[in-house]
């Protein structure tokens, strides 16, 4: 889309040299013909090295932007980005491309296979499963009945996805207008599930806004778990039932999240950390320790605190 | 059904003039040929103005009933009502009626379309979706794969319902017999979803007992959320993942419910209230404030309380 | 499978008389040609009476085993058992056997019916439902759209299973290797749902490792509930939305679990106990009482404690 057209959509004054914008991307990773946005001091550190063709930015931060980058001044860059995301959204149903289904894969009746799909040896797609466009599934996987795998998802080898789970739906991302309405952010990223991952029943894993929601090798996810957009789960994590990971939660390897635990998003949990059932994580956690409670503390402290509460107040 | 027949089913003595009862309704809204019930002091305030043809009522409250209303005395009106609800339940599969599907709507293979269905311009029904009888869907909606929309649901324009969500199943309502068994209350109400609503994946929204479970314009609901029967969500609410709203929760506009929060039902939350993640709401809340905790308090107090607990007891 | 072959797979030294092993089973119930395992002092009490043909066991416990039982010494019996479970797993898709579908049952288009299935009079299987192999469904049941019922599940009469629920998927069970990877335990048990049970939408009920996950007569389960492997729910329980029962939780009759409550597994809750919303159960509970909180206490104490916290610390 022409930059002049973008400015017209957003009602931004533009009198520079016109150019083509091919996609939207985060300030950290945008490059080439991409457009990005910056609306907070927190992300301002990326401005100097920003390689985007153009950037939506509030007036107070514009002086920090690298010279090569075209500045598009606006009051609410996040809202402008959300408005544009619809125009840059990939098609939900795409043009017919050829599929690459192994003759040793088995597609059961009632499964839907999109376009540009590859399914490798010995994988089984069960009835009612929906395999979106440009999905790839490795060897020896079982996609159970009524699982929905959205466009662009990549599944490794030896993965099991239990019934009625949903992989790759849009995350819960909106920008907010002054009149109180919310503008949807269309998610152009994807989900990548590495080898040897098992995902329970009725699990939801959201695609990334940009880039990838990543489930690394050997991780096991129980039923009814929510994994938000842009999360990254290290190798061999265990995520027990009804846990919710908010967007951009980064887990190290072998992290254990107990049942009904949760995270506030945009935080990191170190390798081998263990969150007890119901633990509510709201900040970065060092690995190798056990935590519990909400607000969270170390498990041993939680026991102590609860014992004293009961002793003093019952 | 004849009133005499109803009394026979319920083993209630009846020697008045017989009449026809067409449906069941709440004490507040019953009128015409409808039957209602009252089993608590709490609802007794509606008795004087009750316009129902007949009412199931405990002996201690019968003197409060308006003269025009036929009194059916019984020990457990709620149980009598539950028993009757089965006889007055609407058919799950209805007689064939014509559908009104826009030529600009797209129904993908493997979708099920019931009878008496209308689907407007540019709406997309994806594979495995179930559209029940007498459902209407507005313009420009996307009903994702394997979504189930039960009979009588009304969906506005520009709505997105993500994969594997269930709209309009019966709520969790039972009456209890003395022998400990539970009698199902068949739900005859529906769900109405207004324009510009987005509903996540694996969300469940129950139909109303009578009347409507209502999701107003512009509200956005994240994955794995439960909305109980007869809830009403105001415009532009944001309901984050794994939240549960018990039956008859009324949210004002622009209410934000954080992840894994919940409500006890039969309560109201004012406009622009914000419940932090995990907040457990058990009574009415004034709008415009931030709340947290379980039991709930104002967010600033929750921070103070938790800090003091950790300071004193760790 | 020959015992010598098993030892070869597990790299266990074996020089006894070879024999055939037909299946795996728990130490308590193994008999005939079955193989079991014991890796903890907790289960050592079953060793003396163990009727298994052979047992995987750590060296320190081997002296407790009954004379008739062949001892297979290993460092990690649970891991050995997990490795073997794959070899003894029942087929997901089985040889064609005849079905026994009542002429008064109704199978709607788009439903998948496996092999060896029986469906009794007046039961309704709705579109997109998946009925696995060797499933039996009683009279007068409604299996709603997109419900998945896995192999070997038994459903009684008059049951309602609402849309998109999953009955009988493998539980969340893994053994752990020293390198941090997890080995899946294939679940060979099943789920039995007795008469008059209603199960909400998007509910997940896991099959047992061995034996049966059991939902007894008259129990009602709300939406988005998780029931772990080997749970047993007594008659007429009420399990409110978003509750999670960890594996091997045993509920008596008429237990009420409030919304978003949970249990830690391997525990018993007595008849007529009532867990308030959000209650987190971590040990056995006496019946007939009301409980709340996490850690759990009696409801009246929870109110007292919370009031004092707010009074002292706000």
UniProtKB/TrEMBL annotation, chains A, B, C:
Alphabetically ordered keywords of this record: Acyltransferase, Lipid A biosynthesis, Lipid biosynthesis, Lipid metabolism, Repeat, Transferase
InterPro entries: Hexapep, LpxD, Trimer_LpxA-like_sf, UDP_GlcNAc_AcTrfase_non-rep
UniProt keyword annotation of Protein transport present: no
One GO biological process term: lipid A biosynthetic process
An annotated Gene Ontology molecular function: UDP-3-O-[(3R)-3-hydroxyacyl]-glucosamine N-acyltransferase activity
Signal peptide: none
Active site: residue positions: 229 (proton acceptor)
Protein name: UDP-3-O-acylglucosamine N-acyltransferase
Organism: Campylobacter portucalensis
């Amino acid at each position: 889309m022409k930059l002049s057209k973008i400015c017209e959509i957003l009602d931004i004054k533009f009198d520079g040299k016109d150019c083509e914008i091919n996609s939207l991307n985060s300030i950290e990773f945008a490059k080439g013909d991409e457009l990005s946005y910056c609306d907070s001091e927190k992300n301002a550190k990326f401005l100097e090295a920003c390689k985007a063709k153009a950037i939506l930015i509030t007036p107070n931060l514009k002086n920090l932007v690298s010279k090569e980058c075209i500045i598009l001044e606006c009051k609410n860059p996040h809202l402008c980005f959300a408005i544009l995301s619809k125009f840059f959204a990939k098609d939900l149903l795409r043009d017919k491309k050829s599929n690459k289904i192994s003759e040793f894969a088995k597609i059961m009746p009632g499964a839907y296979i999109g376009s540009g799909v590859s399914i490798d040896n010995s994988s089984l797609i069960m009835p009612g499963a929906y395999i979106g466009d440009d999905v790839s599934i490795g060897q020896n996987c079982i996609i159970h009945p009524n699982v929905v795998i959205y466009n662009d998802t990549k599944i490794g080898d030896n993965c099991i996805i239990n019934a009625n789970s949903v992989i790759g739906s849009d995350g819960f991302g909106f920008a907010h207008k002054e009149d109180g309405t919310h503008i949807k952010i269309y998610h152009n990223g994807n989900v990548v599930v590495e080898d040897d991952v098992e995902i329970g029943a009725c699990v939801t894993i959201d695609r990334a806004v940009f880039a990838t929601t990543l489930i690394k090798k050997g991780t096991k996810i129980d039923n009814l778990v929510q994994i938000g957009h842009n999360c990254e789960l290290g190798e061999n994590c265990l995520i027990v039932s009804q846990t919710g990971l908010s967007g951009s939660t980064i887990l190290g390897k072998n992290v254990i999240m107990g049942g009904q635990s949760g995270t506030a998003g945009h935080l990191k949990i170190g390798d081998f950390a263990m969150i007890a059932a119901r633990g509510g994580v709201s900040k970065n956690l060092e690995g190798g320790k056990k935590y519990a409670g909400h607000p969270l503390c170390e498990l041993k402290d939680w026991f102590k605190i609860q014992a004293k509460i009961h002793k003093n107040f019952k």
